[in-house]
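seq as requested:
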Amino acid sequence: MSDPFHQRLHHVAAAGLSGDTAQTSGMRRVEAISGKTVGSRNLWMGQTHVAAHTSSGNHHHGESETAIYVVSGHPSFVFLDPERGEIRIDTGPGDYVYVPPWVPHREENPDPGTEAVVVISRTTQEAIVVNVSHLEWRGPATA
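struct tokens:
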């Protein structure tokens, strides 16, 4: 094979997840699949942990599309609809959420005793995180 990236599979054990990635207040991101960990070129995948009764800071993921799978807990995802105001998507284990590029949002965990854990996949091989003070979408120039 002329492309060494495709010659073998990469295994990242749960104990090997790295916290050396972009962070937002109120949550903890760990990466599993990325350019740094396995040499991926177009994919980032990891987990986000939101402690009980905690909200993250507002943020967006730049040009990256984000897919979220809820593993445990009941996190809420909040974004701003210009016509209806703040919208909450309440989720539970087994649910999926899609976050389009550039959309400011935050994760909330209203449960007083259980951490929320989600698996995240992005269309960029690094975790683009732009922390913002607002949920108002102001376009790609805000990056």
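The chain is about 5% helix and 40% strand.
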